Amino acid sequence: MFDALRTTVLAALFWAGVPVLHAGDVQRAAQAGEPAIAATPPGTAIASAHALATRAGFEAIEAGGNAFDAAVAVSAALSVVEPISSGLGGGGFFLLHEAGSGRDVFLDARETAPIASAAPGVYLDADGALDRDRATNGPWAAGIPGLPAALVHVAEKYGRLPLQRTLAPAIRLARDGFPVYERLEHGYKARAQVMERYAGTRAVYLADGDAPQMGETLRQPELAQTLEAIARDGFAGFYRGDVARRLLAGVAAEGGRWSAEELAGYRVREREPLRFEYDGWEIVTAPPPSSGGVALTQMMQILSAWDLASQPEPQRVHLTVEAMRRAFRDRTFYLGDPDFIEIPLELLTDPAYAAGLRSTIHPQKATPSELLSGQPTPLEDEETSHFSIIDSEGNRVAATQTVNLLFGSGLVPPGTGVMLNNEMDDFALKPGTPNAYGVMGFKANAVEPGKRMLSSMTPSFMVSDERIAVLGTPGGSRIITMVLLGMLGYADGLDAAAVVALPRYHHQWLPDVVSAESGALSDDVAAALEAMGHAVKRPAEEVSGSTSSHTWGNLQSVSWNRVDNTLEAASDPRHTVGEAAVRRTR
To answer: What would the pLDDT profile of 98-118 be if each residue is shown by its tens digit?
Structure first.
């Protein structure tokens, strides 16, 4: 009876946000006059969008690797089992923390613009309008991939294991195959008309004579060979040699133009992460060419003046939406590739600047977006993947990778198994003209040779005296607001499972609409927001009479409570193939 009562009390204390210590910890804490803090986690936690990728990460850990080795294994496995979302033909961002040195580093493996693709008029039709097919499908839609270079960079500079070991699970999955799941089947159907234009793509996805079906095994032997080349030869295995020649030939055969020099010249950039403080947490997040970290900094610094947890729900949503509105307005005009444009980063992330933005928020009324002068903000892709890792030494990784739209450009150069991205559509290809997702073109994100296109990917860490969290998600421009809501959840004391399940809403300046996923806003809250002047769009209003569920994102998060030395891992419950797990080593 006492044990049951004790468990109930401890649970209540936890949900009230009160740190709970074990008896030995309490004694040591009392002697030191402060809470006991564990030096290292008791094991490893991994959360990813596919169970096979999570297991690949643990395979690397069990072979003697660290979080960075596990990241290579997870990333490569996702490149095999989630071609709908990411892959060797795309790019990504890796946020790393080295426990030994205490160093945080942001690896920018975003794709770059080929020289030929930056020529004037490349993406315009005979009438001078944006050629949407060229911008999103086939060889001209693809930037020079960055993900293979990132795998090599992480393995060689931060990992312990050879690539032959960390890429082994992905090679096995590509060679032997994996079961087709619902999202993969439906995604192929949505893109089949484009993908079946290309012989290399047909050879992969129509190998058995018909489109991928749930329960079938999808094998990718040529992708296995490409992964083997990377495992054997590192950077040269993809960017030079036979794989590079096949990539160049496949792009040229479909009318595109890449050069061997720009392929071999691709480099990962190491950048300094953005940092700011919020309610006792240090936030470490993505710098440009991600737009996410800057927007996240602005939103959370704006919101820091209010005790959001004490606000009625309509008021909390109102204030959060107004912060979103202002951050997305700045995103449009100022952000791009920092190697090509001057970004007023110090100003945009200054708490005093956030205070100025906050002063324009009416506590009870929406600010019409038309009063915040400018033009519409970019809306980016939905199809991306994220994973989060903490290992037993305290190393951690937040990584987000993508090929942009469903199955990227749809083009697999023959003999490679590599689905190429369509990230060129993330540039401003024609000023003032939206892309497939409503992107409006502006100078800061104009295409130039070798330039990296703007992104919303926002891999992030949260660090406090007692707790560390790693999180991120796919979701296009909604990535930023989903990470924001997840961070606010952690700041409120929620556990990882509750954070990844939080309902989601979004505002991005223009269109001037608060959008929400199914169940995120009740009728009463929506009505209160509308009374303040907000336009609210919920799924039931998008399709008249529909009661089907409409959800966003695929948040993956792990956290370490340093007071009771426990690990948590959580995969978004909106999807069925993800897996989050903790394995203790002591």
So the answer is: 999 999 999 999 999 999 998
- Is residue 384 annotated as a catalytic residue, yes or no? yes
What's the 3-state SS for 500-556?
HHCCCEECCCCCCCEEECCCCCCHHHHHHHHHCCCCEECHHHHCCCCCCCCCCCCCE
Higher pLDDT, 184 or 433: 184
Q: How far apart are CA 579 and CA 210, in angstroms?
A: 29
Q: Where does the pLDDT of residue 477 fall: very low under 50, low under 70, confident under 90, or very high at 90 and above?
A: confident
Give yes or no for a contact between 57 and 51, defined as CB atoms under 8 angstroms apart.
no
Cβ atoms 428, 441 nearer than 8 A: yes
Amino acid (one-letter) located at 408? G
Does the N-terminal peptide bond of residue 511 adopt cis geometry, omega within 30 degrees of 0? yes
Burial 535-569 (b: 16+ CB within 10 A, else e): ebbbbeeeeeeeeeebbbbbbbbbbbbbbbbbbbb
Q: Choosing from 384, 400, 458, 473, which is the catalytic residue?
A: 384
| Lookup: tokens for 555 | 């948040």
DSSP conformational letter for 85: T
pLDDT tier, 545 (very low <50, low <70, confident <90, very high otherwise): very low
Contact indicator for 401, 385 with CB cutoff of 8 Å: yes
3-state secondary structure 321-368: HHHHHHHHHHHHHHCCCCCCCCCCHHHHCCHHHHHHHHCCCECCECCC
Tokens linked to 227:
């992964």
Classify residue 370 by its DSSP letter: G
Of 159, 77, 173, which is closest to residue 579 (Cα–Cα)? 77
pTM for the model stands at 0.91
The string of pLDDT tens digits covering residues 170-215 is 999 999 999 999 999 999 999 999 999 999 999 999 999 999 999 8
d(CA 423, CA 11): 46
- In DSSP terms, 97 is beta-bridged to 104, 396
pLDDT of residue 34: 60
The whole-number average pLDDT for the span 531-537 is: 95
Three-state SS annotation for 128-144: CCECHHHHHCCHHHCCE
Q: Please check whether residue 29 is in contact with residue 37, taking contact to mean a CB–CB distance below 8 angstroms.
A: no
> What is the tens place of the pLDDT at every residue in 326-354?
999 898 889 999 999 999 999 999 999 99
Kindly report whether the peptide bond that precedes residue 434 is cis, defined as omega within 30 degrees of 0: no
H or E, element range at 74 = helix 67-81
Between the alpha carbon of residue 521 and those of residues 299, 316, 335, 551, the distances in Å are 20, 12, 31, 13
Task: Kindly give the residue spans of alpha helices, DSSP state H, lying in 196-304.
Answer: 199-205, 221-233, 236-239, 241-253, 260-264, 292-303
Three-state SS annotation for 165-217: HHCHHHHHHHHHCEECCHHHHHHHHHHHHHHCCCHHHHHHHCCCCCCCCCCCE
- SS3 per residue for 435-485: CCCCCCECHHHECCCCCECCECCCCEEEECCCEEEEEECCCCCHHHHHHHH
